[in-house]
Amino acid sequence: MEQTHKRHVAILGSTGSIGTQALDVISRHPDQFEVEVLTAENSADLLIEQAAKFKPNAVVIGNDDLYDKVFAALDPLDIKVYSGTQSLCSVVMMDKIDVVLTALMGYAGLQPTISAISAGKHIALANKETLVVAGELITAQAKEKGVNIYPVDSEHSAIFQCLVGEFHNPIEKIVLTASGGPFRGKDRAYLQTVTKAQALKHPNWDMGAKITIDSASMMNKGLEVIEAKWLFGLSADQVDVVVHPQSIVHSMVQFEDGSIKAQLGLPDMRIPIQFAIGYPNRLKANYPRFNFADYPALTFEKPDLDTFANLQLAYDALDKAGNSPCVLNAANEIAVAAFLKDQVGFLKMSEIVKNCLDKIAYISNPTLEDYVETDKETRIVAQELIVS
Ligand code: MG
User: Could you tell me the distance, in angstroms and rounded to a whole number, from the CA of residue 79 to the centre of ligand 1?
Assistant: First the structure.
């Protein structure tokens, strides 16, 4: 990215947890960034408020029913207003945009990310599902277009930060840290009866509902293993997971001389966000600092793959490759949505994912159309497993 002018940023999903924190970062560095595009699915009021403050060139409201309201509020401010999912794919291509922060939830991030890359925009990737579903296709397309994908996920940002200055040195392996979530140390009998409210209480991170459930079930770490494979060009056996309940060490890289580099800090998503959109600069920030005296023990333990079957399922899907990670993701999105509606119990979520991985036809070299079809088909099968 050029250094001579302000970075023009498009934020897809600006009203969510990552989006609002990104705007906080940007508001602290008005000399560095210009907001070009903001988008939201349903949060029209917050989108209007953000647009009035940051004066983007354009906004997209996903839900067509809210278009009139957003248009009435922002047209007088000379802000272009679009609606519908298809508009996401066109606004990311606008001339002035340098970097697109993809903070949409789930599979919905795939098509806009492909459009942004095809238009040569750098990606600050907060939507890990995009790489889970179509990592091979996305990374190949980014390489062809000379587009960089900067990780926003805290673990992947940690690894990226460790790699700066080391890009010519091969990675022996990486170690992703996992907090273990609210149910660390529990067994399957306990998980049988846990509620949505319990699962939504993450010990260290304040995040959206979907990722919080994924953290409690360890699916989040499974998705991150797949994300890491594609971001850093690794094989599955080069990606380890260690449970680190304090969430201070955000992840580690081991090089071929056996040396390990780690990145540490208090859990605060604003740091990975600003590193991604401000790369290669470290922008001055006054966020609370980590104090070693407050953490006399940083601990590490092996993940429990028997209790938290999702992590093993993700490794299996990665191993199988093809459209398997796409199946894993779609089945999980349906399962999590059903858990959040109290339609299925906690353990049933992994069962749905496992069943879908067994049932959906395997495709070894999927095209984009195959991914779209696999996603659609998996959602139908997963939905049937919920009502049965
Ligand atoms: Mg993460």
Answer: 33
Instruction: Give me 177's structure tokens.
Output: 């840290």
Give dist(CA 220, CA 29) in Å, integer: 31
Domains (range + CATH), the chain: 7-151 (3.40.50.720), 155-268+288-311 (no CATH), 321-388 (1.10.1740.10)
Centroid of ligand 1 to alpha carbon of 157 (angstroms):
9
Sign of CA dihedral 23, 27, 32, 35: positive
Beta bridge partners of 149: 123
State pTM to two decimals.
0.96
122-152 tens-digit pLDDT? 999 999 999 999 999 999 999 999 999 999 9
The token pair at 35 is 């907001």
Ligand 1 centroid distance, CA of 221 (Å): 7
* Bridge partner list, 11: 38, 101
C-alpha 176 to ligand 1 mean position (Å):
9
Return the SS3 of 277. Answer: helix
3-state secondary structure of 41: coil
d(CA 116, CA 88): 10
Q: How far is the CA of 224 from the centre of ligand 1 (A)?
A: 7
